[in-house]
Amino acid sequence: MNSRLVYGARSDASVTRLGLGCEWTVAPFEPRLTRGDVHVWLAPLDRMSLDQETVRSALSESERSRAAALRYPRDRVRFLHAHFVLRSLLGWYLRTSPRHVQMVARDGGKPVLAGPSTMTFNMSHSEGVAIYAFAVHDEIGVDIQSIRDDIHFHRIANRYFAPSEVQRIMRADSSDQIHTFFQYWVRKEAVLKAAGCGLGDGLVTVDVGQDCRVEPDHLVARVPGSNELWHVFDLPAITGYRAALALRSVPRHIACWRVSQCEDFPVLTCQ
To answer: pTM, whole model, 2 decimals?
Structure first.
């Protein structure tokens, strides 16, 4: 068993999907986040019953304004819930209320805690699912994407992916090509978010296919123009989605937990 994993490992780097091999499970009552640990949380936003007044009162004016600018009501609710869960998780770790969590944006837009703190975090949400990652003394990025079959993924891959990645997608079975595309996409976004870079041309320059360095349970990518290496892990299976995690350092443990109901996470308020 790989010492970095809480719930098991799979040493299968020859396939498109590298993996932790663990499952999403309910967190212990008081999980501790220490140096070398990574906590990843999965929240099914559409299945969470949250008091809307509590949600709105916990968010900043900027977050409420960004939600209001979204066109569709369902997207507005998902945005509010995703950011409320982030604040609730941060508040839990920091032993404060969600509304008292202070965040600022670095150059490039990456959110960080205001003031001195060793905790780093990142979040991503797609459709009705959000994912959150937390570490200390490390840079971290995470991305999740819903697997959509209504996009011209070959055209997107030819524009934004490295030639070796495009070739690997095309060599896959026709039914697997779209899954390989999205796996590469979330790996790239996770690396760029960890590095604090915008997407821009970065999707082309960050190679996350099997041609880069591969470890037993993850791969190592580089952002051009930097000597830093980024360790990329495919996250456990989520039906209809792909997700990936990127860090500057190799973690000692990665724990994957879910917020399936409000009762699983006492900070959240149920209706």
So the answer is: 0.87
